[in-house]
Amino acid sequence: MSIHLVGGGWSSDTFDVVYGPFLADAAARAAGAGRLVPRVAVLLVADDDASGAQFGEQWSTTLKSVAPVDPVVTRFVDGALATSVVLSDIDGLLIGGGLTPAYLDTVFPIVDEIRLLVSDGLPYLGFSAGAAIASDSAIIGGWKIGGVPIGHEDIGEDIDEVSVVQRIGLVDLAIDVHAAQWGTLARLIAAAEAGLVEGGVAIDEGTVLIVGDGSLRVAGTGSVWRVTSHEDGVLVSSLGAEG
To answer: What CATH number is attached to the domain comprising 142?
Structure first.
């Protein structure tokens, strides 16, 4: 199992350390299929075709700057639904960032197939929204709990009340992103204390949490903040990036 959860951010200084392990895993799977260059499906959801094309080019350029790769970009305009075609003949799957509820709707028809492929060893990388929906209890937005603000309205993603839904289920803990930069750690803490989730992790920008078979590893420039439920409330600790 190879799951790479990126907290967002777009700094070329972090590209190698954040995306390198994912591309190495994809290359290893490609070699097993007799391919010299891995084919990585890149799924993006955008407001319109123009912005989708821009994001697609940005991702292709970024991945190619790290390692040899054949990015297979599929762009969805908000409201379109993914089909299993996007998962055909690939060595890795990357789901990008944007409005989390929109990604949630787009990938819904193929979540079972994604889960099966990843359990069979297909490397998965979720960036921002793509990381959030990888959870079995995904926080998809919101900035209030019971009508009380627990963060800035900007983190709400067009949702008022913090919303948690069952989604891809690649990891068994809630994921929040842009932690230090957007203050979403407070949302995860409040969601755990309110019993909306049992706990989870909030990932800083420029940082990746790599989930393997029985192991966790952090790489990049920030931290992963771990929130666990406790009889007296919640406990918060941090996992720093490996040197």
So the answer is: 3.40.50.880
